[in-house]
Structure formats: C-alpha cells, structure tokens
Amino acid sequence: MNVVEGNGARIPAIGLGTWELSGRPAARVVEQALRLGYRHIDTAQVYDNEREVGDGLRASGVRRDDVFLTTKVWTNHFMAKDLERSAKESLARLRLTEVDLLLLHWPNSHVPLAETLGALSHARQMGLTRHIGVSNFTVALIEQAVAACPEPLACDQVEYHPYLHQADVIEACRRHGMAFVAYSPIAKGRVKGDRALARIGDRYRKSAAQVCLRWLVQQNVAAIPRTSRVERLSENIDIFDFELSEDDMREISAIGRADAR
Fold this sequence. Notes:
The chain is α/β, with parallel strands linked by helices. It has a single domain, classed as NADP-dependent oxidoreductase domain (TIM Barrel), CATH 3.20.20. Helices cover 41% and strands 18% of the residues. It has an 8-stranded parallel sheet with strand order 3-4-5-6-7-8-9-10. The relative contact order is 0.14.
C-alpha cells in the first residue's frame, strides 16, 4: 500500500478511524479491516475503545509488525507526570508493548507545550512508541512544537476534506518534514451526495467517497475514514487502481471553503 512519510515514520495512506466505535462491533471492524488489507489503525484514549482495537488486531491474525497503530493522549494527561502513566495505561489496554505513533490529541493551553513535548519525547525514548506527533495543531502551534520538541514530530492529524481548506497547515507540515493525516476525510459522509464528486467518479467507475479519498492520497496525505460497515471498508481501500487528472484535482480543490468544519 502507498505510504506517507514523516520524519522517519512510514504511515499507510489509508487507515481505519475508530472514533465512535465501541464494544464488540469495534473489535470486529478492526479485525475485518486488517483481513481486507488495511495496515493502519487509529484510536485514542478518549474513544474508550483501545481494548477492543487490541482485541481486533489479535483476532485478525495479521502480524503486529505489519500494522501501523496510532493512539492519542487526551488533554488532561499533558503534565509530565501524567503523560507517561497514561501512555502505559493505553498500552495495557491495547495489550501491546509499544504503539507506532503517539499523538497529543488537542492543544492544551493550560500546560506549557514544552513540558508536554518533553514528556512525549521521553515516552519515545522509553520505547513506549516508535514515533510521536500532534493532532489539531494550527500553523503557529506546529512552529512552536517543532522548536520546543527534543524529538522529531512525525505528523499533524487534522480534519481535512474537499469542503475544508488546510493548505497552510499542509505546507507547515511539509516544511518540517512532517506527514499530514486527515480525519473526517469524507466529511462524515457528506461527500457521498456531492454532484461534482459523483460526476468525476462516473468517469472512473468509482464512488464520490472513493474520488475524495483518492484526491487526498494524490496530495501525499494519509486518510483515516471511519466506518462500521464491511462494504464501506472494502470501498474505502479500493482507491489504488485509478488516478485523478490534474483537472479533476483542481476541480475538487475548488469545492472547499475555509469555514466548513
């Protein structure tokens, strides 16, 4: 599968987002996704499904080393003494010795960023995670984080889809060798009714959602669409057998506006 690189991390271009998935259904979706060929799974402490994600990983039969697994530290664990403990608790729930990527889930202005990044870097040095990064960081916060962090940051994970411009954040990530990972990449299903995306998709015999995901991948962006339906799992990963033209890419990029979260 295509990968997106960020300061040493090789992140599979399409992953499974698990926000709002819980219990046995979450484990089953993770298991099914891995059996279908997914090799990138994204979870978080606040999703309250790390245990089920770990169960799905083991049930899939896929080798642990073949899967890129991300989890995120919630904002109330950003003090140095809390972050290491919370990361170890995540690993205990996942029943893993390390994750591939540990992110700060959202900025927290109540804890000095340098303190949090120091603790995050220490987690990497301890072997709790192979790579570290941030999520929902603005351009200004990326600059501050890169300046303050003792270890390289692999990525910024941010909402991105055709209705929401993120060119400035993408450029900031590129400037610092970071990958850009898009969550809500099909705008929580909104793209499925988009006439322009459907019309482009007709030319390639692909759905509007597949066109949207392909648009992201061709920008060297990783995407983590969430779904609980097996047929959607198959659809979302089936985007590597066609290529959008430059005109298609420009037309899709022109859909967006700055206030469409």
